[in-house]
Amino acid sequence: DQVLHIVPETIQQVQHLQLLCSTFMLDLWKPLLPEDIRAGEDLHIRVPAPLVQEMKDSLAQHMISYRVLIPDVQKLVDQSMPRERSSHRQVSGGYVYTEYHPMEEIYQWMTQIQKNNSELVTQHILGKTFENRTMYYLQISQPSNKTKKIIWMDCGIHAREWISPAFCQWFVKEILQNYKTDPKISRFLQNLDFYVLPVLNIDGYIYSWEEDRLWRKSRSPYENGTCYGTDLNRNFNSSWGSVGVSFNCSSDVFCGSGPESEPETRAVAQFIKSKKSDILCYLTIHSYGQLILTPYGSTTKPPSNNEELMQVAKEAAAALKGKYGTSYRVGSTASILYSNSGSSRDWAHTIGIPLSYTFELRDTGTHGFVLPADQIQPTCEETM
Amino acid sequence: RAMELPPGHFPAARAAAVAVEYLRYLRGGPGSGLRLRELQRARRQDIDDVGHKYYLELELEDVLDKDRTVSCTAEVLYHLGSTTSAPDVQLTVQGELRSTEEADKEFYNRIRSLEKELVAENIPDSHGNVPPELEPIHLLAWVASGYVIWQNSTENTKFHLAQVKHVKQVKRNDEDLQFDFVLLLHEMVSQEVLPWEVTLLWHPQRGARVPQSRAAGAGS
């Protein structure tokens, strides 16, 4: 079924539309009654699927222009229904993926996920944060006798970007819920392992829940405890400190006292370095901006495999747009966004990981960091 | 002599943001808020001794009526070497924006008849929620931030309203409504969140005015 938007221009068009409504017994959404159809005013009509073509032909014949407002009514109905507990296996007893969760709950979630999916998931320690909290990643790996390449994804490097950890959790849930039934996912898992770090900047994330929703950095103290936090995404060893940073702790892009000065950065870097020959793709998830960013931020000189990077990114953006029409721009950070140095994505690429991307999820500034929870589902679905 | 710019690249995106914020200040109100749907085309002209001028073609949508879009052509002139004067913005909007006369009047009367002055904070809240009765205040915050962002933008900045930290209505003897805001503006290039104290005056027929605004004291 489709909903058409028509603005009749003449009385003849109004009369014809009224005729169509009564002949086909169409469902008028706006106005409610055929007698209220007026020239120059919006008309929204739901047309049952079997009549769509005939309706459009009739409109064309009478030179009545229309726009498809809703291309698939059933789909919209399905989306707006709260997700029922499906007959899928319980991925993790009743966890609500369409809400934002504090760190305590995310820790519990990780434990549950491993427990309920132990044939596929193992939880590992990556390191510790400045405030001594344990950083865990989840390894999703189908037992097999062949060594598999790795796709690494980290979320929550910036505390205020709450949609990012929400996406990592969603991603894990989707894979585990559907790997047996979805041929694409099952093929992925035959050949690839996923390593997911749901929250990289745990101290900052907790601080954004408890003290300052718009906090970005970590929580390590500088200047005798008068100033806090390093921008972890300026702290990696890729042209560190050269551009798009501040050496002043009070700045939101403070790059730390040196490359990898922060324990969180070291934990990630050490691990990735140790596995780098097996890592095919490095993904880091941020918000906001609706962008798929490629290396580099510190220079506009393109990386050696730029064509491949761009092609994959463009295909990803197209697939993403196909879901709900959300537009993502694609390109290097230096051309699309701003100059920066010390980013994890640039560092991953320079040590040899060929496909390295930063995703900036919804939106483009209307809500920014404070994205309503009701956008978690569509954001995650389109990004999957 | 105007150079075509890739609309996806940041120089065009920053100029487009300024145009949209200026338009929000001019045309926004408690019943309507505009958002950039797409930057379709951008050109830039470097004018000796004057500055950089951007020519933009934008498609905008009304956040309260998403299937309605309007086109807009804008010229944004950033003055040479200036950090103190606002960019000049000229715009032409094609197409009709939805009339908000009814909603504006209703809002105006509702606020005027409040016994206690309206006070609110954290709009939206941490989870992105705005209670429906505060949505008009949220949209007026866009008008206020539209003004501040337009006035303070340069080619090296891109501002968005991150959150309304605090808003207080101030009753007046004349016919305007007055709202004193503390707005948190997110600046994309520096990634800073900057608090601004902004006074907004609004009247259903006369529209909005910002008699004063200033960057507030030390932030986070």
UniProtKB/TrEMBL annotation, chain A:
The keyword Membrane is annotated on this UniProt entry: yes
PROSITE patterns, sorted: CARBOXYPEPT_ZN_1, PEPTIDASE_M14
Domain spans labelled Peptidase M14: 99-384
InterPro entries associated with the record: CARBOXYPEPT_ZN_1, M14A-like_propep, M14A_act_pep, Peptidase_M14
Active-site residue numbers: E360 (proton donor/acceptor)
Cellular compartments annotated: Apical cell membrane
Protein keywords: Carboxypeptidase, Cell membrane, Disulfide bond, Glycoprotein, GPI-anchor, Hydrolase, Lipoprotein, Membrane, Metal-binding, Metalloprotease, Protease, Signal, Zinc
GO biological process: proteolysis
GO cellular component: apical plasma membrane; extracellular space; side of membrane
Membrane topology of this protein: Lipid-anchor; GPI-anchor
Keyword Glycoprotein in annotation: yes
Pfam families: Peptidase_M14 (PF00246), Propep_M14 (PF02244)
GO MF assignments: metallocarboxypeptidase activity; zinc ion binding
Cofactor list: Zn(2+)
Function: Carboxypeptidase which preferentially cleaves C-terminal acidic residues from peptides and proteins. Can also cleave C-terminal hydrophobic amino acids, with a preference for small residues over large residues.
Family: Belongs to the peptidase M14 family.
Protein name: Carboxypeptidase O
Species assigned in the record: Molothrus ater
From TrEMBL, chain B:
GO molecular function annotations of the record: metalloendopeptidase inhibitor activity
Record's keyword annotation contains Repeat: yes
Lineage top rank: taxon: Eukaryota
Pfam families referenced in this protein's UniProt entry, alphabetically: LXN
Cystatin LXN-type domain location: 1-102, 119-220
Annotated keywords: Protease inhibitor, Repeat
Gene Ontology annotations for the cellular component aspect, listed alphabetically: extracellular space
Keyword Repeat: yes
InterPro entries, alphabetized: CYSTATIN_LXN, Cystatin_sf, Latexin
Family stated for the protein in its record: Belongs to the protease inhibitor I47 (latexin) family.
PANTHER family per record: LATEXIN
Name this polypeptide is given: LXN protein
Organism the protein comes from: Molothrus ater
Gene that produces this protein: Lxn
